[in-house]
Amino acid sequence: MQANVVVVGSLNMDLVTRAQRLPQAGETLAGESFFTVPGGKGANQAVAAARLGAQVAMVGCVGADAYGQQLRDALLGEGIDCQAVAIAEGVSSGVALIVVDASSQNAIVIVAGGNGQLSPASVMRFDALLQSAEVIICQLEVPAETVEYTLARGHALGKTVILNPAPATGPLPAHWFGHIDYLIPNESEAAALTGLPVNDLASAKVAATHLLALGVGKVIVTLGAQGAVFADGTGFEHFAAPVVQPLDTTAAGDTFVGGFAAMLARGEGVREAIAFGQQAAAISVTRAGAQPSIPYLLEVQTVVTA
Ligand code: RIB
């Protein structure tokens, strides 16, 4: 099997608590439930792309612990090529401590663990995977130099390069932008990248214009229930979000990115890919947890054709 989507990124075990609300500083809150599920932005995007029709390979790193084994097994169970998911001795696997509140919003603390060991050399070693890909996806839960290398290499190979700048803490290095075909931030990430407030359609357009001026190919700002704004330098398009009752928004953005990439990899147009990614993400928010919430192709097609 040759992978047409390659994800270079993180794998985390998600330790998830539900509580009425998110705790404040110094406060101890009683949670209502607890569960442990595979997550990590990279792995979630890989699972989404695989469930939504792509042949996927993952490049990542876990610790030599039980979580690492479970995280790798979860991807293997989805038919994802894990030859490039290394197991590092002496570090834990990545973990994410997640609290989901009654209104389905979440707060997440991540500990990089093995994700922090993913070096440019770990990606170079599997250059054949990048060469076989149509689409290469990165996020920001692995070292910046590894993201930088992957973006540059993907661009040099003429691949479609997607950066989901999550989590974003500030502007990206200027020389990255020319290597990115699709930059896909959410509101808070677009705000962190530009220094501008982003909370609605109008402000998303301003931020997208700013990002295009920095040299990125195309921008998709995802706005949750407010949909998504697509900007390619010739204008803006708004894609309304499907209306659903959210239970847990964890991995909604990852589902969008994975679904979007799967559609591009099979030759669909960008508008079809955005609408498809939105349908998949809308299903995911009605379910709890990261990877367990991601729908399969048939579920999304059923909604699209209904
Ligand atoms: O995007 C959701 C993901 O963010 C979670 O699965 C968690 O692992 C964090 O990486």
Automatic annotation (TrEMBL):
It catalyses: D-ribose + ATP = D-ribose 5-phosphate + ADP + H(+). K(+) binds at D248, T250, S284, R287, G289, S293. Keywords: ATP-binding, Carbohydrate metabolism, Cytoplasm, Kinase, Magnesium, Metal-binding, Nucleotide-binding, Potassium, Transferase. Pfam families: PfkB. Activated by a monovalent cation that binds near, but not in, the active site. The most likely occupant of the site in vivo is potassium. Ion binding induces a conformational change that may alter substrate affinity. Catalyzes the phosphorylation of ribose at O-5 in a reaction requiring ATP and magnesium. The resulting D-ribose-5-phosphate can then be used either for sythesis of nucleotides, histidine, and tryptophan, or as a component of the pentose phosphate pathway. This is Ribokinase. The gene is rbsK.
